Amino acid sequence: MSRRWLQLLERLGSPLGTGTEDPDAAPPVEGQTVSEDWRDYMHHERLYRLYGPHPEGAWRPYHCPTLFAGIDRLKLQPHEQRLHERIAAERPPGTWDWLRPDTLTVVDLPGGLSVQMAATLFAEGTCQLIATFDHWPRANSEPAGMIRRLDAEPTAAPPHAGDPRIMVDSREVVNAMVTMAPRVAARWARGVPADAPPVWVCDARRLTSATPGPGDYDNRYFIDDSILPGPESLRSAGIARVVHVAADADATPEDDLANWLHELYTAGFDTARMTLGDPETWVIPMPIIPAPGAPIAGRVSNRSDRGGFGQTISERGSSGGVYSGAGAGG
Amino acid sequence: MRTEPWPLEPPQVRRLLERLSLQLGKWDMHQAGDPTVLPDFLVLGAEEHRALVRRAQTARAAQCEMEEAVRTQPACLEAVGVPAELCEVVATAPAPGPRLTRCDFHWSTDECWRISEFNQDVPGGLAETAELDATVAAATGVRGMQPAGDLAAAITAALAPWPRIGLVHATAWSVDLQQVAAVARWLEAAGHATVIGSPANLQWRDGRPHLFDRPVDALFRHYPAEWIPGLPDPQAWLRVAQEVPCMNPLTAVVAESKRFHAAPAEHALGLSEATQATLARDFTRSCYPRAEGRDAWLAAREEWVLKRTYGRMGEGIRIGAALSAQAWDEALDTALQDPQGFVLQEFFEPAPLWFSHGMGYPVVGVFLVDGEFAGYHTRVSRHPVIQHDASYVPTMVTTA
C-alpha cells in the first residue's frame, strides 16, 4: 500500500465510532444550550447540518452539500451580515400561519437574503431547511486584493454582490448562514419534528442572463432533480401545496424552478406566492398559476448559455419539467 | 466476482456516507431521492483482477494502433464522426500526451466479461476510485480484500513534469467540479500549482496558455472534446492540441467515437494481426447505419443496439431486444436520417447481480493511465444500460 494511501486512511478511513467526527457538527438536540456567537458556527459541517433537514426525515436525500464543501476547500472566512430591513421588521399578526404540514416552501430570493428569510421561517415557525446551493463561490483561492467587503447587506437584485468577475458570488450566502446560525441553532434546541414541513432554500441569482467573458468565473448552476423532488415523491410525503417566496409579485423564477412549479401545478398541487415586499402575503400567500420556463435538457448535452456554456438545448429533459444532471464525464 | 454488504448498521452507513460527502467531495449521493452509493462491495478474485487488467491493457494497445491509423486518414476521421472543426488538428497533432482511459466491462449471461465501452476522453469516477474505495474499506474494517491501484498517484506521476496545471470542466455540473477538485487536490499535494476553470476561460497571452490570469504548463481536460467547437473561442483549444500537454489530448476524440470500433470493417487501416485479433475477441461487432442494411437490421432486431456516436451516460441507447418492432423501426429511421450520428453494435445480454437493494447490472471500469493499471470504478444500474442515475459501489480485490 502506498504512502499516499496510508496518509489518506490515517486522515479519513479510521473505523466509524473512533472519534473522527466532529461531535459539535450535529444539530443541537432538544433542550441543549447553544452559543449565541455566530463565530462558533463557521465550520462547514456544522453549517451543513444546521441548514439541513431533520436527520431522520424524508428530505435528507435532497439536501445539497456542494457549497458547504466549498467553505472548507476554499478556506472561506465568513463575516457577519446586516439583516435585511424586511427581516428585521416586526411581523404582521398571523405571519407563517400558512406553514402547514402539507406545505412545501421554496425561498427563492437573491443570495444571502434567501438564507435570512429561510432561517427566519425556521426560527419563527416549525419547518426544516433543505439547501440547494449546488456550486462553489469560486473554485480557486482568492488572489490578494480581490476580497471585497463581505459585511454588506445582502443585495436585493442580481447579478453581483462583490467581485463582478464571479457570476454568482455566494460568499454572501455563507455570510448569511453564519449570521443566522445562532437563531437556527436555538430553534433546533427547541425541538424540530422529523415530519416538519420542508423549506427549500435557493439563490435566485443562480442563473444570470449575462454571458461570461473568458476572465469570468462561471459558477452558474441549475437546480436539478437530484435536489427537487417530483410530484409522486411529494404526494407520498403528504405535500399538497407549494409556496414560492419571491422578491415581488411579478417575479419570474429561473427556468429550473419555473418548470418544476409548472409541473407541480399541472399535477394538481396548489401553488401560491409570498413576496418580500408585500407583508400581507406573509400572512396569506397569493395563489399563482406558474408558467413553464424554457425547455432545457441538462441530461443530454452541455446545458445552455445560462448555466455553463455551449449552445442552447432544444430538447426537454426526460424527467418531466425538471432538469436531470449527468455531467460531462462518462 | 461477488457482492458483499458493508458490515455496518444503518446509522453507521449514514455516518460513513456523510463523511464521503463532506470530507471527500462525493456530492452526488442521491438522484431523485434514491441513493446512488450502494452499501456493498463488488469483490473480484485476485486472478480475475489480473485477467481484467490484462484484457484492458491489450485492448488499449490495440486501440492506440487503430487510433493512429484512423487519425491519419481524413476520410476515415470524418466517417467515424469526429467534428469537422477538429479533423485537421487531430490529424496533425504531435505525439499524444498523457492519457487517462477507462475500459468498461459488463458481466454477461454467457458468463464472461464483455467490453461495452472504452472511455477514452473524459472518464468519470476519479474521486471514487482514488479515495472512496479505500476510505470505505478502512472505515468498514473488512478483511481479506482491498482496493487495487492508486489512481491519484498515477495521474500525478503522469503530470509530474509540469509545475502549473490548469483543470477545466463543464461548470454547470457540480458532479464534474467534484472530479476536477479532487484531481487538483492530489496535484497540489504533489507540489503543483493548480487553477480550475471552464474551457471558455482558456486564453493565450504572450504565447502561453492562461486560465484566468494564471499561466499554465499543462491542462487536465474534463470536458468532452466534441463539445469544443461550440466554445466561444475554439481556436484556443486547437492551439492547445498542437502545443500544450493535455490529459487527455484532443486526439482522444477519435477513439471516444462509438463509430470508431466499426472502422476496421469499413476502412483499410493496415492493422497488425495481433490488433485485429484483439479487436475481434474483445469488442462487440459494430457497423455504420446504412439504408441498404435496414431490412436486415429490422429482421434481426434482437441482435443489435443503436448508439449515438458521442452519446454519454447511456444517452440515446436503443436496445432492439427491448423495443417493439415498430419502435425499433422508428429508431432506425432516426439513425438513417443522420447516419454519421449513430452506430449499430451487436447486442449482448448483461447479467445482474444481487446487491443490498435488489438486483442490479454492474459495469466494472478499469482505469489505465498511459496504459498502466490505476484502479477500478464500478457502477450499478437497475437497468441493463448504465445511465446518469447509476449507483457507485466500491470495488475490492481479494488478498487471500
Question: Topology of this protein?
Answer:
The complex is a heterodimer of chains A (330) and B (400).
Chain A: H1 3-12, H2 44-50, H3 66-73, H4 85-88, E1 103-109, H5 111-124, E2 128-131, H6 171-189, E3 198-203, H7 231-236, E4 241-246, H8 255-266, E5 270-275, H9 279-283, E6 286-287
Parallel strand pairs in A: 1-3, 1-4, 2-3, 4-5
Antiparallel strand pairs in A: 5-6
Helix pairs in contact in A: 2-3, 5-6
Chain B: E1 2-5, H1 10-24, E2 30-31, E3 34-35, E4 40-44, H2 46-71, H3 74-79, H4 84-92, E5 100-107, E6 113-119, H5 126-140, E7 145-146, H6 151-158, E8 164-169, H7 174-189, E9 193-197, E10 202-205, E11 208-211, E12 214-215, E13 218-222, H8 234-243, E14 246-247, H9 252-256, H10 263-266, H11 273-282, E15 286-287, H12 294-299, E16 304-308, E17 318-319, H13 325-337, E18 342-346, E19 353-355, E20 358-369, E21 372-381, E22 391-393, E23 395-398
Parallel strand pairs in B: 4-23, 8-9, 8-13, 13-14
Antiparallel strand pairs in B: 1-4, 2-3, 5-6, 5-20, 7-23, 10-11, 11-12, 15-18, 16-17, 16-18, 19-20, 20-21, 21-22
Helix pairs in contact in B: 2-11, 4-8
Whole-number total of structural domains of chain B = 2
CA gyration radius of chain B, whole angstroms: 21 Å
Structural class from helices and strands of chain B? alpha+beta
Largest interface, C-beta within 8 A: A-B, 66 and 81 residues
- The helix/strand order of chain A is HHHHEHEHEHEHEHE
Number of domains of chain A: 1
Choose one word for the global shape of chain A.
Answer: globular
Could you tell me the mean pLDDT of chain B? 93
Protein name (chain B): Glutathionylspermidine synthase pre-ATP-grasp-like domain-containing protein
Organism (chain B): Thioalkalivibrio halophilus
GO molecular function, one term (chain B): metal ion binding
InterPro entries (chain B): GSPS_pre-ATP-grasp-like_dom
